[in-house]
Specification:
The chain is α+β, with helices and mostly antiparallel strands and about 260 residues long. It has helices at about 1-15, 40-45, 55, 65-75, 80-85, 90-110, 185-195, 200-210, 240-255, and strands at about 25-30, 120-125, 125-130, 135-140, 140-150, 165, 215-225, 230-235.
Length: about 260
């Protein structure tokens, strides 16, 4: 029975992979990034500032600063450190579990199985910003990004499942956030805390929301602790999107 479920899930996921996004705000930068070799993919990411780079642009990434990002984007050499990332346990688990996470989103939300486009896209009116989507769904005739994450027991402390939209076990309630902070960095951190996710993933989904011209996005997380799927709702944040565009333009000028 378990093998049958895995087989059906795999078929559904593979059928959803070949769909392309038809959105006027997006242009295909590279078709079928899944077919690229490891070093080719790393160099392809240097053709723009990806959604995962947005947290660095806005100063809410605890692992890398803007100066290191600019040096990395300028370089045509792949470092051993970059190559080693894919071998980290959490990264390998996240890659292997992505089909399961997206399938769990489908089951828990009843919104349909997300499509996984194979292309790397650039945003038409901000071509220095690029996006690789984990998943995209159609909701009320609108394209909505669906980001998939595997959360390790260590990373669990950066989430608040009680603030989620839906979860497999336990109660949850969406919290509204009233921010009075004078700077954009603290406001973004407060808004991310309100929806229950780390700020570096909040900005990542905002860049995807911008690219799809969506009113909101979803982050679906499979928490290893308690083995629970949780769906977090991220409303569109115009201030955050505007800052991504501004800081992205400044950084790309230096690149």
């Amino acid at each position: 029975m378990i093998q049958g479920r895995k087989h059906v899930m795999g078929i559904m996921f593979m059928e959803s992979m070949n769909k392309q996004i038809d959105c006027p705000k997006l242009t295909v930068l590279i078709e079928n990034v899944q077919a690229l070799e490891e070093d080719e993919y790393a160099l392809a990411r240097r053709q723009g500032l990806g959604a995962s780079d947005s947290s660095i642009l806005l100063g809410v990434n605890p692992y890398k600063d803007i100066n290191k990002l600019i040096v990395e984007k300028r370089s045509r050499t792949i470092t051993d450190e970059e190559r080693s990332i894919k071998n980290k346990e959490a990264v390998r688990k996240g890659y292997d579990l992505e089909p399961l996470i997206l399938q769990k989103f489908n089951t828990l939300s009843n919104k349909g199985m997300p499509s996984k486009p194979q292309s790397m896209y650039q945003i038409t009116d901000a071509p220095y910003l690029t996006i690789n989507f984990d998943g995209v769904i159609m909701e009320n005739n609108l394209l909505i990004p669906t980001e998939a994450k595997f959360v390790t027991p260590y990373g669990d402390k950066y989430y608040n499942r009680k603030h989620a939209l839906l979860r497999e076990n336990g109660e949850c309630k969406i919290h509204k956030c009233i921010t009075m902070f004078p700077n954009i960095t603290d406001r973004i951190k407060a808004r991310a805390e309100a929806v229950g996710i780390p700020p570096y993933y909040y900005t990542q989904v905002q860049q995807q929301i911008y690219g799809l011209n969506a009113p909101h996005g979803y982050l679906v997380a499979l928490h290893d602790k308690g083995w629970e799927c949780v769906i977090y709702f991220i409303p569109r944040d115009e201030e955050c999107i505007s800052e991504i565009k501004i800081q992205g333009f400044k950084a790309w000028q230096q690149v």
